[in-house]
Write a structure and sequence with these properties.
The structure is a homodimer. By secondary structure, chain A is an all-alpha fold. Chain A has ten helices and no strands. Chains A and B meet through helix 7, helix 8, helix 9 and helix 10 of A and helix 7, helix 8, helix 9 and helix 10 of B. Chain A binds a DNA duplex through helix 1 and helix 3.
Chain lengths: 208, 208
DNA sequence: CCCGCTGCTTGACGCCCGTCAAGCATTGCT
DNA sequence: AGCAATGCTTGACGGGCGTCAAGCAGCGGG
């Protein structure tokens, strides 16, 4: 089984690697299509059309549509976990962290709007379909932890304690971000500055 | 045209009334089905199955699927605008208003979960599909005004000014409610008490 | 009493979906 | 060089969808 074909002595290019690579490649194509059309209107044929493969290949790498989408959201998660870790590690003052965090939120809202609306789409789907819940809840918890690292570092730099639990803070920021994203997508020019202002106003209020 | 059949002298039971009545009746059936299955999985046949009519009747009262769904969301809006007006008018102290508001949020989250997840579903659909945006934005503005009436009254009763604009407050509460709804739907027993606690904690912070 | 209109059902259409089997092309091993 | 396994394409399937046309039932007006 698993006839490894290591070219030299190193562990290079096993068939399993190729396989996983194609799965990820298809998952990326799928994420792009899903981000463009949304879950309801995305078909496997459309995903394949937006890739360099034909529609039948999906069933070579995935058992069914659900396994593909699951693989997609896991890939998405692996990308977004570390999105704010850089500015958390680098910022030296609370004010700097807050400014950079707000800027990053605005940037990701504008430049990665499709993937964010997809996230909200899938999270809402999980309210209807049980199948999605494990992955959605895991990603939601991961995002919450990410936000948690930002705000606890912010509090430490400010030398003052947080007066709210991280889960609630995440809910507040999520509401602000979702409102901003919708405004941005419907063409509201003030969406970016509104988001920045709201985040900049909100975080200082959370300190004791 | 429009041969009115007023029975007595009053304006009673014109054919147009019957027509609108059926439209609303179908819209209610549609809302129930949509709340159960979500937008992506709801078909016109399924809607008709959950009503007392057959699948063809939809096209007698609505031009197409989109017109039906539009009629649905408008009916939904007309129901929810006044949801909190009672407690706004009746509450005599800020504390009473806050407690009743939090209770009402919890109650509506638990007893009307399907229609709320449908609202989040449609709002997310509007991020992808332009057709939905006018109605979604109008409902969102209506909900925001409703929340605005609650919090401004709350501030007046407390004798202290609001230190945040209504749009931002709506975003915060929406984030808290959406998180609560998801938790409730996945079976989290603490969802209700969490929502109540978060709202009870949040509103006092918004006063100067 | 019968006719015609309104309200609803039934059935059919073309389309697109997820899925899968069969076959072709390419690669890599012996 | 020849063969077998791998990787991908093609085409077909059953089914569900939105839509719509034709037809039936029941009621009200002449």
């Amino acid at each position: 089984m698993t006839a490894a074909v290591e070219t030299a002595r190193g562990t290079r290019r096993t068939p399993a690697d190729k396989y996983d690579e194609r799965r990820t490649q298809l998952a990326i194509s799928a994420l792009e299509t899903l981000g463009e059309l949304g879950y309801a209107r995305t078909s496997l044929r459309e995903i394949a059309n937006n890739s360099e493969f034909s529609h039948g290949v999906v069933h070579y790498y995935f058992a069914d549509k659900f396994e593909l989408i699951t693989h997609c959201v896991r890939h998405y998660k692996s990308q977004c976990v570390t999105r704010y870790d850089g500015l958390v590690a680098e910022s030296r003052t609370a004010e700097e962290l807050l400014a950079r965090f707000a800027d990053k939120l605005v940037e990701t809202m504008t430049t990665e709007a499709p993937v964010h609306r997809l996230w909200y789409d899938l999270r809402t789907q999980s309210m209807f379909e049980e199948q999605f819940r494990p992955d959605v809840l895991l990603i939601d918890a991961t995002l919450q932890e990410m936000i948690g690292r930002v705000v606890t570092t912010y509090a430490e730099l400010a030398g003052r304690p947080l007066t709210m639990d991280v889960a609630t803070i995440y809910a507040l920021l999520d509401g602000v971000f979702e409102k901003g994203l919708l405004a941005h997508l419907v063409g509201d020019r003030g969406a970016s500055s509104d988001l920045r202002a709201r985040v900049s106003d909100l975080l200082p209020r959370l300190l004791g």
